[in-house]
Amino acid sequence: MPKPDLDRIDRNILALLQQDGRMANSDLSQRVGLSPSPCLRRVKALEETGVIRNYVALVDPAAVDLSVSVFVSVTLERQVEERLDAFEAAVVRWPEVLECYLMTGEADYLLRVVVPDLAAYERFLKDHLTRVPGVASIKSSFALKQVRYNTALPLGHLAD
Amino acid sequence: MPKPDLDRIDRNILALLQQDGRMANSDLSQRVGLSPSPCLRRVKALEETGVIRNYVALVDPAAVDLSVSVFVSVTLERQVEERLDAFEAAVVRWPEVLECYLMTGEADYLLRVVVPDLAAYERFLKDHLTRVPGVASIKSSFALKQVRYNTALPLGHLAD
DNA sequence: TCCGAAATTGGTATGATCTGCCAAAATCAG
DNA sequence: CTGATTTTGGCAGATCATACCAATTTCGGA
Protein backbone atom coordinates (compact mmCIF):
# COMPACT_ATOMS: atom_id res chain seq x y z
CA MET A 1 0.00 0.00 0.00
CA PRO A 2 2.20 2.86 -1.20
CA LYS A 3 1.48 6.33 0.15
CA PRO A 4 2.68 8.74 -2.49
CA ASP A 5 3.51 12.32 -1.71
CA LEU A 6 0.58 14.61 -1.15
CA ASP A 7 0.51 18.01 -2.75
CA ARG A 8 -1.33 21.09 -1.57
CA ILE A 9 -4.59 20.06 -3.20
CA ASP A 10 -4.53 16.58 -1.67
CA ARG A 11 -3.99 17.99 1.80
CA ASN A 12 -6.75 20.47 1.20
CA ILE A 13 -9.07 17.63 0.21
CA LEU A 14 -8.13 15.72 3.34
CA ALA A 15 -8.69 18.72 5.56
CA LEU A 16 -12.14 19.26 4.12
CA LEU A 17 -13.22 15.62 4.23
CA GLN A 18 -12.01 15.39 7.81
CA GLN A 19 -14.53 18.09 8.63
CA ASP A 20 -17.37 16.78 6.47
CA GLY A 21 -16.99 13.28 5.16
CA ARG A 22 -20.19 13.54 3.16
CA MET A 23 -19.36 16.71 1.32
CA ALA A 24 -20.55 16.41 -2.28
CA ASN A 25 -17.75 15.99 -4.76
CA SER A 26 -19.05 19.00 -6.68
CA ASP A 27 -18.67 21.18 -3.58
CA LEU A 28 -15.33 19.69 -2.73
CA SER A 29 -13.96 20.28 -6.21
CA GLN A 30 -14.96 23.93 -6.10
CA ARG A 31 -13.31 24.51 -2.74
CA VAL A 32 -10.02 23.03 -3.81
CA GLY A 33 -10.07 24.78 -7.17
CA LEU A 34 -10.58 21.79 -9.42
CA SER A 35 -13.31 20.47 -11.66
CA PRO A 36 -15.32 17.50 -10.33
CA SER A 37 -13.59 14.87 -12.43
CA PRO A 38 -9.97 15.20 -11.29
CA CYS A 39 -11.14 15.93 -7.76
CA LEU A 40 -13.04 12.67 -7.53
CA ARG A 41 -10.05 10.87 -8.98
CA ARG A 42 -7.81 12.24 -6.27
CA VAL A 43 -10.27 11.23 -3.57
CA LYS A 44 -10.45 7.70 -4.94
CA ALA A 45 -6.66 7.52 -5.04
CA LEU A 46 -6.47 8.68 -1.43
CA GLU A 47 -8.96 5.99 -0.49
CA GLU A 48 -7.20 3.21 -2.37
CA THR A 49 -3.76 4.05 -1.05
CA GLY A 50 -5.12 4.03 2.49
CA VAL A 51 -4.51 7.69 3.23
CA ILE A 52 -8.23 7.92 3.86
CA ARG A 53 -8.91 4.90 6.03
CA ASN A 54 -12.70 5.15 6.05
CA TYR A 55 -15.70 7.35 6.51
CA VAL A 56 -17.71 7.26 9.70
CA ALA A 57 -20.64 8.91 11.42
CA LEU A 58 -19.83 10.33 14.85
CA VAL A 59 -22.57 9.70 17.40
CA ASP A 60 -23.29 11.73 20.52
CA PRO A 61 -22.36 9.46 23.44
CA ALA A 62 -25.02 10.93 25.71
CA ALA A 63 -27.75 10.18 23.19
CA VAL A 64 -27.00 6.47 23.36
CA ASP A 65 -26.24 6.44 27.07
CA LEU A 66 -22.50 5.87 26.75
CA SER A 67 -21.13 8.98 28.36
CA VAL A 68 -18.63 7.40 30.75
CA SER A 69 -15.05 7.30 29.52
CA VAL A 70 -12.51 5.46 31.62
CA PHE A 71 -8.78 5.65 31.03
CA VAL A 72 -7.08 2.46 32.08
CA SER A 73 -3.35 2.07 32.61
CA VAL A 74 -2.41 -1.57 32.24
CA THR A 75 0.95 -3.08 33.15
CA LEU A 76 1.87 -6.56 32.02
CA GLU A 77 3.98 -8.90 34.11
CA ARG A 78 6.84 -9.07 31.72
CA GLN A 79 7.12 -7.33 28.40
CA VAL A 80 7.75 -10.39 26.34
CA GLU A 81 6.51 -9.98 22.84
CA GLU A 82 4.21 -12.93 23.06
CA ARG A 83 2.39 -11.40 25.99
CA LEU A 84 2.03 -8.07 24.23
CA ASP A 85 0.54 -9.68 21.16
CA ALA A 86 -1.91 -11.70 23.22
CA PHE A 87 -3.04 -8.59 25.08
CA GLU A 88 -3.44 -6.58 21.90
CA ALA A 89 -5.40 -9.39 20.29
CA ALA A 90 -7.79 -9.33 23.24
CA VAL A 91 -8.12 -5.56 23.15
CA VAL A 92 -9.24 -5.41 19.55
CA ARG A 93 -12.03 -7.87 20.29
CA TRP A 94 -13.60 -5.66 22.96
CA PRO A 95 -15.87 -3.04 21.45
CA GLU A 96 -15.85 -1.00 24.67
CA VAL A 97 -12.16 -0.21 24.11
CA LEU A 98 -12.27 2.66 21.67
CA GLU A 99 -8.58 3.46 21.92
CA CYS A 100 -5.48 1.60 22.99
CA TYR A 101 -1.88 2.79 22.96
CA LEU A 102 1.38 1.09 23.77
CA MET A 103 3.11 3.60 26.02
CA THR A 104 6.56 4.55 27.19
CA GLY A 105 7.25 4.74 30.89
CA GLU A 106 6.05 2.49 33.66
CA ALA A 107 2.60 1.64 32.33
CA ASP A 108 2.57 -0.55 29.26
CA TYR A 109 -0.81 0.27 27.79
CA LEU A 110 -3.29 3.09 27.99
CA LEU A 111 -6.90 2.30 27.11
CA ARG A 112 -9.97 4.43 26.72
CA VAL A 113 -13.01 2.38 27.62
CA VAL A 114 -16.54 3.63 26.99
CA VAL A 115 -19.40 2.30 29.10
CA PRO A 116 -22.89 3.42 30.16
CA ASP A 117 -22.12 3.48 33.89
CA LEU A 118 -19.76 2.33 36.61
CA ALA A 119 -21.52 -0.99 36.97
CA ALA A 120 -20.78 -1.76 33.36
CA TYR A 121 -17.18 -0.81 33.90
CA GLU A 122 -16.96 -3.19 36.81
CA ARG A 123 -18.31 -5.94 34.59
CA PHE A 124 -15.75 -5.06 31.95
CA LEU A 125 -12.94 -5.36 34.50
CA LYS A 126 -14.20 -8.55 36.02
CA ASP A 127 -15.25 -10.38 32.88
CA HIS A 128 -12.63 -9.21 30.43
CA LEU A 129 -9.59 -7.22 31.50
CA THR A 130 -8.61 -9.16 34.61
CA ARG A 131 -9.01 -12.44 32.77
CA VAL A 132 -6.21 -11.78 30.33
CA PRO A 133 -3.14 -13.72 31.47
CA GLY A 134 -0.12 -11.58 32.31
CA VAL A 135 -1.95 -8.46 33.47
CA ALA A 136 -0.01 -7.26 36.49
CA SER A 137 -1.68 -4.00 37.43
CA ILE A 138 -4.68 -1.93 36.42
CA LYS A 139 -5.20 1.71 37.27
CA SER A 140 -8.47 3.41 36.34
CA SER A 141 -9.08 7.13 35.89
CA PHE A 142 -12.50 8.49 35.16
CA ALA A 143 -13.39 11.34 32.85
CA LEU A 144 -15.90 13.77 34.27
CA LYS A 145 -16.38 15.59 31.01
CA GLN A 146 -15.31 15.33 27.42
CA VAL A 147 -13.96 18.80 26.82
CA ARG A 148 -12.89 18.05 23.29
CA TYR A 149 -13.16 15.15 20.90
CA ASN A 150 -11.82 15.75 17.46
CA THR A 151 -10.92 13.22 14.80
CA ALA A 152 -9.35 15.65 12.34
CA LEU A 153 -5.58 15.50 12.23
CA PRO A 154 -4.02 18.98 12.20
CA LEU A 155 -3.02 19.43 8.58
CA GLY A 156 -3.12 23.19 8.57
CA HIS A 157 0.43 23.69 9.76
CA LEU A 158 1.88 21.85 6.80
CA ALA A 159 0.01 23.81 4.18
CA ASP A 160 2.52 24.82 1.51
CA MET B 1 -32.19 19.67 20.97
CA PRO B 2 -34.42 16.82 22.15
CA LYS B 3 -33.05 13.30 21.84
CA PRO B 4 -36.05 11.00 21.57
CA ASP B 5 -35.87 7.35 22.37
CA LEU B 6 -34.17 5.17 19.83
CA ASP B 7 -35.73 1.92 18.78
CA ARG B 8 -33.98 -1.16 17.43
CA ILE B 9 -33.94 0.16 13.88
CA ASP B 10 -32.45 3.50 14.88
CA ARG B 11 -29.66 1.83 16.77
CA ASN B 12 -29.06 -0.46 13.84
CA ILE B 13 -28.78 2.56 11.57
CA LEU B 14 -26.32 4.18 13.96
CA ALA B 15 -24.22 1.05 14.19
CA LEU B 16 -23.99 0.79 10.42
CA LEU B 17 -23.25 4.46 9.80
CA GLN B 18 -20.58 4.37 12.48
CA GLN B 19 -18.83 1.74 10.40
CA ASP B 20 -19.42 3.34 7.00
CA GLY B 21 -20.61 6.91 7.04
CA ARG B 22 -20.98 6.97 3.28
CA MET B 23 -23.15 3.94 2.93
CA ALA B 24 -25.82 4.56 0.31
CA ASN B 25 -29.28 4.99 1.73
CA SER B 26 -30.53 2.19 -0.52
CA ASP B 27 -28.01 -0.21 1.03
CA LEU B 28 -28.70 1.05 4.50
CA SER B 29 -32.44 0.63 4.14
CA GLN B 30 -32.05 -2.98 3.02
CA ARG B 31 -29.81 -3.87 5.94
CA VAL B 32 -32.18 -2.47 8.52
CA GLY B 33 -35.23 -3.98 6.84
CA LEU B 34 -36.90 -0.81 5.66
CA SER B 35 -37.63 0.79 2.32
CA PRO B 36 -35.44 3.74 1.35
CA SER B 37 -38.00 6.42 2.15
CA PRO B 38 -38.54 5.87 5.88
CA CYS B 39 -34.91 4.93 6.32
CA LEU B 40 -33.72 8.25 4.97
CA ARG B 41 -36.27 10.01 7.14
CA ARG B 42 -34.88 8.35 10.23
CA VAL B 43 -31.32 9.26 9.30
CA LYS B 44 -32.32 12.88 8.81
CA ALA B 45 -34.07 12.89 12.16
CA LEU B 46 -30.99 11.45 13.85
CA GLU B 47 -28.92 14.19 12.26
CA GLU B 48 -31.24 17.01 13.21
CA THR B 49 -31.66 15.91 16.80
CA GLY B 50 -27.89 15.74 17.16
CA VAL B 51 -27.68 12.00 17.77
CA ILE B 52 -25.45 11.91 14.69
CA ARG B 53 -23.08 14.78 15.29
CA ASN B 54 -21.36 14.73 11.91
CA TYR B 55 -19.70 12.64 9.25
CA VAL B 56 -15.93 12.58 8.89
CA ALA B 57 -13.16 10.95 6.93
CA LEU B 58 -10.53 9.25 9.06
CA VAL B 59 -7.02 9.79 7.80
CA ASP B 60 -4.01 7.55 8.38
CA PRO B 61 -1.70 9.53 10.69
CA ALA B 62 1.45 8.01 9.21
CA ALA B 63 0.45 9.09 5.71
CA VAL B 64 0.46 12.74 6.74
CA ASP B 65 3.44 12.43 9.10
CA LEU B 66 1.50 12.85 12.31
CA SER B 67 2.17 9.57 14.00
CA VAL B 68 3.26 10.82 17.41
CA SER B 69 0.55 10.86 20.08
CA VAL B 70 1.38 12.40 23.42
CA PHE B 71 -0.83 12.08 26.46
CA VAL B 72 -0.49 15.09 28.70
CA SER B 73 -1.68 15.27 32.27
CA VAL B 74 -2.25 18.86 33.25
CA THR B 75 -2.88 20.13 36.77
CA LEU B 76 -4.13 23.64 37.36
CA GLU B 77 -3.09 25.70 40.34
CA ARG B 78 -6.52 25.91 41.85
CA GLN B 79 -9.67 24.44 40.50
CA VAL B 80 -11.66 27.58 40.37
CA GLU B 81 -14.25 27.52 37.69
CA GLU B 82 -12.88 30.57 35.97
CA ARG B 83 -9.52 28.89 35.54
CA LEU B 84 -11.09 25.73 34.16
CA ASP B 85 -13.07 27.68 31.60
CA ALA B 86 -10.03 29.62 30.50
CA PHE B 87 -8.03 26.45 30.08
CA GLU B 88 -10.77 24.73 28.13
CA ALA B 89 -11.19 27.74 25.89
CA ALA B 90 -7.50 27.55 25.07
CA VAL B 91 -7.62 23.83 24.43
CA VAL B 92 -10.33 24.02 21.82
CA ARG B 93 -8.30 26.55 19.86
CA TRP B 94 -5.32 24.21 19.48
CA PRO B 95 -5.79 21.83 16.58
CA GLU B 96 -3.01 19.53 17.86
CA VAL B 97 -5.21 18.62 20.84
CA LEU B 98 -7.48 15.96 19.42
CA GLU B 99 -8.95 14.97 22.77
CA CYS B 100 -9.28 16.58 26.16
CA TYR B 101 -10.99 15.23 29.26
CA LEU B 102 -11.65 16.68 32.68
CA MET B 103 -10.53 13.92 35.02
CA THR B 104 -11.09 12.71 38.52
CA GLY B 105 -8.08 12.16 40.77
CA GLU B 106 -4.92 14.19 41.07
CA ALA B 107 -4.56 15.39 37.48
CA ASP B 108 -7.19 17.82 36.30
CA TYR B 109 -7.03 17.29 32.56
CA LEU B 110 -5.89 14.59 30.22
CA LEU B 111 -5.01 15.63 26.67
CA ARG B 112 -4.08 13.68 23.59
CA VAL B 113 -1.81 15.80 21.44
CA VAL B 114 -0.85 14.77 17.92
CA VAL B 115 2.39 16.08 16.41
CA PRO B 116 4.83 15.05 13.68
CA ASP B 117 7.81 14.65 16.00
CA LEU B 118 9.23 15.48 19.40
CA ALA B 119 10.52 18.83 18.27
CA ALA B 120 7.00 19.85 17.36
CA TYR B 121 5.81 18.70 20.76
CA GLU B 122 8.46 20.83 22.43
CA ARG B 123 7.18 23.80 20.47
CA PHE B 124 3.64 23.01 21.49
CA LEU B 125 4.67 22.96 25.15
CA LYS B 126 6.76 26.10 24.97
CA ASP B 127 4.51 28.21 22.78
CA HIS B 128 1.09 27.11 23.95
CA LEU B 129 0.58 24.89 26.95
CA THR B 130 3.02 26.54 29.36
CA ARG B 131 1.71 29.96 28.46
CA VAL B 132 -1.74 29.36 29.82
CA PRO B 133 -2.03 31.06 33.21
CA GLY B 134 -2.73 28.70 36.07
CA VAL B 135 -1.02 25.61 34.74
CA ALA B 136 0.74 24.08 37.73
CA SER B 137 2.19 20.84 36.41
CA ILE B 138 2.52 18.99 33.12
CA LYS B 139 3.34 15.33 32.74
CA SER B 140 3.87 13.87 29.28
CA SER B 141 3.56 10.23 28.23
CA PHE B 142 4.37 9.10 24.75
CA ALA B 143 2.59 6.49 22.70
CA LEU B 144 4.86 4.07 20.91
CA LYS B 145 2.09 2.54 18.88
CA GLN B 146 -1.59 3.05 18.27
CA VAL B 147 -2.91 -0.44 18.95
CA ARG B 148 -6.50 0.55 18.38
CA TYR B 149 -8.36 3.64 17.31
CA ASN B 150 -12.06 3.25 16.91
CA THR B 151 -14.73 5.93 16.76
CA ALA B 152 -17.74 3.62 16.86
CA LEU B 153 -19.52 3.59 20.18
CA PRO B 154 -20.41 0.06 21.29
CA LEU B 155 -24.13 -0.17 20.52
CA GLY B 156 -24.30 -3.91 20.12
CA HIS B 157 -24.79 -4.69 23.78
CA LEU B 158 -28.02 -2.72 23.96
CA ALA B 159 -29.71 -4.36 21.01
CA ASP B 160 -33.24 -5.25 22.02
C1' DT C 1 -63.47 -4.56 21.74
C1' DC C 2 -64.02 -0.87 18.70
C1' DC C 3 -63.07 3.54 16.77
C1' DG C 4 -60.41 7.51 15.22
C1' DA C 5 -56.34 10.36 15.35
C1' DA C 6 -51.52 10.36 14.84
C1' DA C 7 -47.35 8.50 13.42
C1' DT C 8 -44.88 5.58 10.32
C1' DT C 9 -44.30 3.35 6.10
C1' DG C 10 -43.82 2.39 0.91
C1' DG C 11 -43.93 4.03 -3.75
C1' DT C 12 -43.13 7.37 -7.37
C1' DA C 13 -41.32 11.39 -10.00
C1' DT C 14 -37.96 14.91 -10.13
C1' DG C 15 -33.54 16.76 -9.63
C1' DA C 16 -28.89 16.29 -8.25
C1' DT C 17 -24.83 13.52 -7.97
C1' DC C 18 -21.55 10.01 -9.11
C1' DT C 19 -18.97 7.41 -12.49
C1' DG C 20 -16.36 6.03 -16.66
C1' DC C 21 -14.76 7.49 -20.86
C1' DC C 22 -12.12 10.61 -24.30
C1' DA C 23 -9.80 14.60 -25.89
C1' DA C 24 -7.15 18.74 -24.47
C1' DA C 25 -3.89 20.99 -21.57
C1' DA C 26 -0.04 21.04 -18.54
C1' DT C 27 4.20 19.03 -16.80
C1' DC C 28 8.63 17.06 -17.17
C1' DA C 29 12.84 14.78 -19.07
C1' DG C 30 15.98 14.45 -22.59
C1' DC D 1 12.60 22.49 -28.40
C1' DT D 2 10.49 17.95 -28.80
C1' DG D 3 8.04 13.98 -27.27
C1' DA D 4 6.13 11.20 -23.60
C1' DT D 5 3.77 11.10 -19.37
C1' DT D 6 0.67 12.91 -16.21
C1' DT D 7 -3.16 15.63 -15.02
C1' DT D 8 -7.15 18.01 -16.23
C1' DG D 9 -11.98 19.22 -18.04
C1' DG D 10 -16.26 18.00 -20.11
C1' DC D 11 -19.78 14.86 -21.55
C1' DA D 12 -23.29 10.70 -21.29
C1' DG D 13 -25.29 7.01 -18.70
C1' DA D 14 -26.36 5.16 -14.36
C1' DT D 15 -27.10 5.66 -9.63
C1' DC D 16 -28.73 8.07 -5.81
C1' DA D 17 -31.09 11.59 -2.77
C1' DT D 18 -35.15 14.18 -2.08
C1' DA D 19 -40.00 15.74 -1.77
C1' DC D 20 -44.38 14.57 -2.11
C1' DC D 21 -48.87 11.42 -1.47
C1' DA D 22 -51.55 7.47 -0.40
C1' DA D 23 -51.72 3.29 2.40
C1' DT D 24 -50.65 0.94 6.52
C1' DT D 25 -49.72 0.50 11.23
C1' DT D 26 -49.81 2.06 16.05
C1' DC D 27 -51.89 3.72 20.05
C1' DG D 28 -55.13 5.92 23.31
C1' DG D 29 -59.86 6.69 24.63
C1' DA D 30 -64.58 5.31 24.77
Automatic annotation (TrEMBL), chains A, B:
- Which Pfam families does this chain map to? AsnC_trans_reg, HTH_24
Entry's SMART domains?
A: HTH_ASNC
**Source taxon at top rank:** Bacteria
- Keywords recorded for this protein, A-Z: DNA-binding, Transcription, Transcription regulation
Is Transcription regulation included in the keywords of this UniProt record? yes
UniProt entry tagged with the keyword Transcription: yes
Limits of the HTH asnC-type domain: 6-67
> CDD domains under this entry?
HTH_ARSR
User: What is this protein identified as?
Assistant: Lrp/AsnC family transcriptional regulator
The species this protein was found in: Azospirillum oleiclasticum
Give the organism's phylogenetic lineage.
Bacteria, Pseudomonadati, Pseudomonadota, Alphaproteobacteria, Rhodospirillales
